Amino acid sequence: MLEVRNLHLAFDDLVLAKDMSFALEAGKVHVIIGPNGTGKSSLLKTLFGDIAPQSGNVSFDGTSLHKKQLPAWRQQFGYMPQDIKLDVGLSVLEVVLLGQLNALSLKLGDSLIEEALSALNQIGLLHLANRDVRTLSGGQCQMILFAQALMRNPKILMLDEPVSALDLHFQQVLLEHLDQQTKQKGWTSLMILHDLNLAAQYADNLLVLKGGELYAQGAPEDVLTPELVYEVYGVHADVVLDSMGVPFVRTQRRGLAAFENMKKSFIQPEFNQEKFHHAK
Ligand SMILES: Nc1ncnc2c1ncn2[C@@H]1O[C@H](COP(=O)(O)OP(=O)(O)OP(=O)(O)O)[C@@H](O)[C@H]1O
Question: Where is each ABC transporter domain found (predicted)?
């Protein structure tokens, strides 16, 4: 169980988590959704120990995250940050293998190479194994980084917008693999998505962040309502159950005038003109 207790996280006066608490069960896919800039990536970085919160506690299976034990803490994670650039002269196979190598032991057995090739084969990218990663497309890079995260065989897998560059086929390949491995291996998987329909299809547990709060949490069919979509995003939408019983969110076009009435509640910090003049 990955637990967050009474987390307070802020950058100066921008508060991203106010006394936030939640617990994530193993063997499930947990999906975070929420508006741009609401603190989703910062929350993942906090769980990974990259950002120190002002207060609160993060623990996994009873062991708390402490600055002094960061390497051991991170050893438990597979973490795919947002928009990572693969700008090194390595082959695809080497990059996937990096998921298994820790900096102190660079021993490479045949079985590891087999495992990496098999991971590439499973996601349909074996043909890229010898390619220099600098020559890959954005979507190919994203898939390779996913294969690397899988190679770690992590206890906790965190993916920050892992399908943002993927076509429909590879979105499904990645998300189905994630779901299958999470359940088979008992991983605690936590992923940020912007696409509410993908979130509805793949989340066992949906966490909705807004204004520093965990605004809602639960099964997608319980959480995703037209009211919630409006309250969180300021967008009118229809939500219906599809043929599989999964919520389907379809936004309504109402023109720009629809935003005028609610602009104030959705534009967060005030623009400080004095500060701007000062900076000039
Ligand atoms: N190191 C930092 N110092 C100051 N402010 C930061 C820092 N990192 C992030 N922020 C701010 O914190 C807020 C939340 O950023 P974050 O990237 O966590 O949001 P997000 O919900 O993941 O956004 P998006 O959906 O756009 O990717 C933003 O306003 C961002 O500018």
Answer: 2-236
* Reported ipTM exceeds the 0.85 cut: yes
Running along the chain, 280 residues long, what does each successive block of 10 average in pLDDT?
98 96 98 97 98 97 93 94 85 90 62 90 95 95 94 95 96 97 98 98 98 97 97 96 94 88 63 68
Give distance in angstroms: CA of 255 to centre of ligand 1: 28
Q: How far is the CA of 242 from the centre of ligand 1 (A)?
A: 34
Q: Quick one: which atom of ligand 1 is closest to the CA of 45? A: 18
Phi, psi of 242 (to 5 degrees): -80, -175
Q: Can you give the length of the chain in residues?
A: 280
Q: What is the 3-class SS of 144-184, one letter each residue?
A: HHHHHHHHCCCCEEEEECCCCCCCHHHHHHHHHHHHHHHHH
- Return the ligand 1 atom nearest residue 35 CA: 25
Encoding tokens for residue 57?
Answer: 């506690």
Q: Which pTM value belongs to this model?
A: 0.93
Instruction: Find all residues with CB under 8 Å of 121, minimum gap 6, and list them.
Output: none
Map out the domains of the chain with their CATH numbers: 2-84+156-279 (3.40.50.300)
Residue of 32, 40, 54, 214 with the most ligand 1 atoms within 8 Å of its CB, for mutation:
40
Answer for the pair 246, 202: CB distance below 8 angstroms, yes or no.
Answer: no
Q: Which two tokens stand for residue 66?
A: 């402490």
Query: Using CA positions, which residue lies closest to atom 26 of ligand 1?
Result: 36
